[in-house]
Sequence to fold (532 residues):
Amino acid sequence: MAYSEQVIDHYENPRNVGKMNDSDENVGTGMVGAPACGDVMRLQIKVSDEGIIEDAKFKTYGCGSAIASSSLVTEWVKGMSLDEAQELKNTTIAEELALPPVKIHCSVLAEDAIKAAVADYKEKRAKK
Amino acid sequence: MKLPIYFDYSATTPVDPRVAEKMIECLTMDGNFGNPASRSHLYGWKAEEAVETARRQVADLLNADPREIVWTSGATESDNLAIKGVAHFYQKKGKHIITSKIEHKAVLDTCRQLEREGFEVTYLDPDKDGIIQPQAIADALRDDTILVSVMHVNNEIGVINDIAAIGEITRAKGVLFHVDAAQSAGKVEIDIAAMKVDLLSLSAHKMYGPKGMGVLYVRRKPRVRLEAQMHGGGHERGMRSGTLATHQIVGMGEAAAIAKAEMHQEHERITTLRKRFWDGLTGMEEIFLNGSEGQRYIGNMNVSFNYVEGESLLMSLKDLAVSSGSACTSASLEPSYVLRALGLSDEMAHSSIRFSIGRFTTEQDIDEAVAEIRTAVSKLRELSPLWDMFKDGVDLSKVEWVHH
Ligand SMILES: Cc1ncc(COP(=O)(O)O)c(C=O)c1O
Fold:
């Protein structure tokens, strides 16, 4: 299968790989997918008191397109407000990475991951 | 070094240069281009002679009678001819066929077609090592069973079935036995005289011969009858019509002769390479050989790298031409049906890669592969949330995943 240059770039030089402390109250974690389906993404955001995403980290088990989708999202969401991040669309991701139709689900997963991370952060805050 | 390094000998092999040379001699005006069925002139006689020499070469590889060799276009056609041919000829005797879940698609889809025609097929499970236990065959036999079809060496995982033992069972019951030997011929000893096999499929391109060429061995004593699937000029004693492709046949014959002459030394060489490969991977955590350790063809290594997804691994191993047990490239996200039938979890199946080595693999190739695998797997594990969880002692089977 031929990969786009953008996918290869993110795959070979993934941005923001890592893990944040889940118990930190400023951190929201989204974990989506399942090993049985061939992809799992863990996307984490660190949010400032003003509600701006200061940092983002990811780890992904999955194909090159899944890794690239999550890497790209961590780059994009840095500096976004939570609302902006939640509005991120999988189609934008797919377009940027020139994903072929069989790989669209990777961008959907990345969208789900950021939404889950924001939801997790909000839930943590609400509980406080 | 030619890149990517070829590690996919189970998919196909390059034609041996000695084979190519013989083939080239059968194409042009100066060469042996005649129609082997032409009885009226020298061109035909010479072509027929070449075809019969090749027939003897293939028969010798199997310890068979040359009259038991039927030329086909490949193992796919041989499987079709054997299974449909027997089913159609013997259907008045019964309509039940036994095969396994891990056969090649050429067998499975042929059986599916027969099911649509009203035949009944039992698909046996292999054991966890990928072996079809002879006892499982014995237990599945019925009064209306007419055919058992079981492969010799599995194309994905390389395990070897005990064909001799299965043959004893089928012959005792008067049931015909077909073996797909596309992956074993020329690599693993096949003595058809000592094994109660009735039909056996071969493919030239898995043994350093040309693609588009195969053989169906059809036993003469006790005689096996087939209904032809290809009708026409009545070639190959009516079992398979079509002008014989002299150059292809000569190629397969030469490939068989070389395989027979060099089988033992090649086996030793490949055993050494295989050991070098495994030794190179020693110490890596969570890697597993799929299929039986002892009962396998040594040139095949199907390995699961736990917590690493196969397609991304393929992408990292870009200097290695290998194949993946994960069919993620299709929209289906289905892992290999063979690995699934062994009872592998989906994620283990998704993380599998088949490395297959052969005649032209060198020590340098192996060392290169080992280095690349080590780098790629550690990089991808750094990226893998599953690896993190494993290291943190999380039991992944207990996690509630968010399916999408
Ligand atoms: C076990 C087995 N059977 C059948 C085939 C099909 O052979 P051919 O490509 O000659 O049709 C193959 C190879 O693809 C195989 O590995």
Notes: The first strand of chain A starts at residue 27 and ends at 34. The first helix of chain A runs from residue 5 to 12. The mean pLDDT of chain A is 93.
